[in-house]
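Many introductory courses stop at the sequence. We go one step further.
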Amino acid sequence: YSIHKLTKMNLKTTLTQSKNEEAKPWWIYIIECVDGTYYTGITTNINKRVEKHNSGHGAKYTKFRKPVELLYYEKHKNRSWASKREIYIKKLNHMKKKDLIDNFFPL
């Protein structure tokens, strides 16, 4: 392969991966740790992510605060939107996160 062909192949692979990533919905979630604190994150698979948190492999913050319980989630069309919302939620204080959770009615 020439460098030109490899570059085209790599670009095609990257574009395909990006399209596949964008096709999956992204989720924002809030879990409650055993000590009553909240952890907010994003994922494409909530069930697997919560399992990872409970196995001690999810995040440094939750590693010693397990078990965790899923309390809230939102679906977003792509990672960018989910990340922006995650940043917003992470800036909320505990009481405002609790209000968000208390007014959550999953479908």
